[in-house]
Amino acid sequence: MTHLGMIIPIILLIIHLALMIFCLSKLFKQDFTNYLSKQLWIFIIMFFSIIGPISYLHFENWEE
């Protein structure tokens, strides 16, 4: 495996973890959620890879 072949999965993993941490931090700062309970959103964000955080960002309307 070349160096580029080893670097790309690491970069994708870092992006995935950053997106998951961002969504979880936003979720914990919210007082309420629009569609699902917080516990269900935590499960979806953590266990549905890239689809979970993206669906959270799409469905939950959060404003600061």
TrEMBL record:
Keywords: Cell membrane, Membrane, Transmembrane, Transmembrane helix. The keyword Transmembrane helix applies. It is found in: Cell membrane. GO terms for cellular component: plasma membrane. Residues 18-59 form the Cardiolipin synthase N-terminal domain. Its main location: membrane. It is a multi-pass membrane protein. It comes from the Bacteria. Pfam families: PLDc_N. InterPro entries: CLS_N (IPR027379). This is Cardiolipin synthase N-terminal domain-containing protein. It comes from Clostridium botulinum.
